[in-house]
Amino acid sequence: MPSTSATRLAAVIGDPVRHSLSPTLMNAAFEAAGLDWTYVALEVASAGLPDAFAGVRSLGIAGLSITMPHKESAAACADQLSPTAERLGAVNCIVNHGGLLTGHNTDGEGFVRSLKHGFCFDPSGKRCVVLGAGGSARSVILALSDAGASEIIVVNRTLGRAERAAALAGDRGEVVALDGAHSDLADADLVVNATSIGMGDPGPTDVPFDASVLHEGQILVDIVYNPLETPLIATARAQGASVANGVAMLAHQAAVQFELWTGVDAPIDVMLASVASQLD
Q1: Count of CB atoms within 10 A of residue 72's CB?
Q2: What residues contact residue 134 under an 8 Å CB cut-off, 6+ apart?
Q3: Is the pLDDT at 177 greater than 60, yes or no?
Q4: Where exactly does CATH 3.40.50.720 map onto the chain?
Q5: Using CA atoms, how far apart are residues 117 and 114, in angstroms rounded to an integer?
């Protein structure tokens, strides 16, 4: 809908950010919900982050999405943090409450929502394997733990980072080396690739483990969404596993942000369709 003097503004900041799908996704959601909101992308260098937060306050920008490389720095710039953002030390969403900026991290909740929406999968009591120990992996690990997963096995090349990530799951977190993860992968209910392997223009060898251990009855999620079909997804599908790429997590984490800003249920099917239209 056309902007008016009453239009509320939300934005995504990052560096770079011009490639972001968030404006397409969020503006489709605002239109479907009949809300007089608009959403733009603003490129902000790391040195300018404190000034950007001051601008959010002074301009009354209602909501902010944070993308790379600012998620950790944004946690220090926010006035207060949600419990999840505090535990992760990273923020991907700011809610402006009359100048009080609250930092949230919606990645993990978005991931769990995507499992329920796409597979009717409840992590409670399930065995999960997460490949990676970076920011996205940490969000997934914490969310799976909070959702009641019985075991969360973290597989990563750097042992120290894996141990720190697994600690988010408490006594249900475990670290396993990639070359020793064969049986854990075979026994898992859910396998998540939260590394960047396969992103961009993948080669045929861009599969982080021997995917022949995967089988029917398992779910494999590769959080990469460009390309839509990674070599890992193709191999897992051939083994009979149910598969998903990162599109659903992207849309669902944005849906959580939408709801935090507006108090309105997000039109998730519209959001998923808007992303798919840009990636086909």
Answers
A1: 14
A2: 161, 194, 195
A3: yes
A4: 108-245
A5: 5
Q: How far apart are CA 176 and CA 83, in angstroms?
A: 28
Residues 6+ apart with CB under 8 A from 103: 74, 75, 78, 80, 81, 82, 85, 91, 93, 94
Q: How many Å apart are CA 84 and CA 102, to the nearest integer?
A: 12
Alpha-carbon gap, residue 255 to 184, rounded angstroms: 32
Q: pLDDT tens digit string along 6-18?
A: 999 999 999 999 9
Q: Which of 71, 104, 127, 252 is catalytic?
A: 71
Tell me which H or E stretch contains 219: strand 219-222
Using one digit for the tens of pLDDT, what is the confidence trace for 37-49? 999 999 999 999 9
Average pLDDT, the chain: 94
> What is the location of CATH 3.40.50.10860 in the chain?
8-105+249-279
Is it the case that residue 280 has pLDDT exceeding 80? no
Which residues is 227 bridged to in the sheet?
A: none
Q: Percent of the chain at pLDDT above 70?
A: 96
Whether 126 is a known active-site residue: answer no
CA distance 65 to 47: 18
Q: Please tell me the CATH code under which domain 108-245 is placed.
A: 3.40.50.720
Range 8-105+249-279: architecture per CATH? 3-Layer(aba) Sandwich (3.40)
Question: Hey, what amino acid is at 20?
Answer: S
Sheet holding 37-43, edge to edge: 37-43, 8-14, 63-66, 93-97, 100-104, 80-81
Say if strands 8-14 and 219-222 run parallel, antiparallel, or are unpaired.
unpaired
